[in-house]
Amino acid sequence: MTKRAESKYKINRRLGVNLWGRAKSPIAKREYGPGQHGQRRKNKPTDFGIQLMAKQKLKGYYGNIGEKQFRKYYDEAVRRKGDTSENLIELLERRLDCVIYRMKFAVTPFASRQFVNHGHITVNGKRVNIPSYLVKDGDLIEVKEKSKGLTAVLDAAQSGERDVPEYIQVDHRQMKGSFVRAPKLSDVPYPVQMEPNLVVEFYSR
């Protein structure tokens, strides 16, 4: 198991929020940080600390994306026309592993990344095993025929923990769907409040 995957069990407690809205989250039992000093009283956060926390929440939500890659998304968001924070959310939501998670073909962003890595997904009929692949409007995403009966996929599709957002279309019987349009921040069903504007402030210091 990689360090990135291993760390998911501590992300919620470190950030103090139920990042993915799951009933199994450890934050439900221990509302303090992990480790020996997790219960110490916290000082009032600085502006830098608030911005850093907003960045860590957003990175963590999308499967604990690495800093180098996340910074590339920010740079691309700045380069594009329009609101930088909205552009950043759009880029993150276009990631193939995120789209698979939104379609409920995987129960967590980590499982979704692994599912794509293992070659279970096609985009417009072609096998794609790169989780960071950016999906375009109208792209057809489908679970490969041999993978449609996997227990993990069936369980995720039937899960009542979350709904499929409006900017995604999906047919769970045929295990395929499409990315309809780019979402706005208000469209994205985050279980906790995300503040991409603070992430922009963090990088633009």
From TrEMBL:
Q: Give a Pfam family name.
A: Ribosomal_S4
Q: From which organism does this entry originate?
A: Muricoccus nepalensis
Domain RNA-binding S4: from-to ranges? 94-158
Tell me how this protein assembles.
Part of the 30S ribosomal subunit. Contacts protein S5. The interaction surface between S4 and S5 is involved in control of translational fidelity.
Q: Which HAMAP family has this protein been placed in?
A: Ribosomal_uS4_B
Its keywords, alphabetically, are: Ribonucleoprotein, Ribosomal protein, RNA-binding, rRNA-binding
Record keywords: NADP included? no
Question: What is the protein's name according to its record?
Answer: Small ribosomal subunit protein uS4
Report the function annotation for this chain: With S5 and S12 plays an important role in translational accuracy.
